[in-house]
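In response to reviewer comment 3 from the previous cycle, which asked for concrete evidence that the modeling workflow produces usable outputs, we include below a single protein chain processed end to end. The sequence was submitted unchanged, and the resulting structure tokens are shown without manual editing.
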Amino acid sequence: MSTEIKKTSSNFENLKLLTESCIVNSTLKSIGLRWKMQILCCFLYEEYQYGKLKQIFPTISDQMLSKRLNELLKEDLIFKVEISGTQPKQYQYNITEKGKELMEIILVLQQWSRKWAVNGLNVEKLT
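The workflow returned the following structure tokens.
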């Protein structure tokens, strides 16, 4: 669980400086949160309901999955549509144009990471 950083702390000042000097830092910080990219990647090829995402990621907690979906919704990277005639209400999630554009960049980063095995990790063994 993350806590809010005090505006008087040096950590806050460092993050502010990093963001002001290169906005990519804040984007990477946001999309780099645990599970976020994995969830977004699912929507690149298919739309999903919450239960199907739980099947794909069985070790993620309900709280974390809900939190990440809400973040992706708030950032307009995915959208949800209520499935009519379901009780209780059920929703279908899908990627937005903004999310698709981000995924194009992520896929290029993935290729680069595989080519260069970032930080000495053998990325091929991880995928």
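The chain has two domains: 1-31, 32-126. We consider this sufficient to address the reviewer's concern, and the full set will be provided in the supplementary archive.
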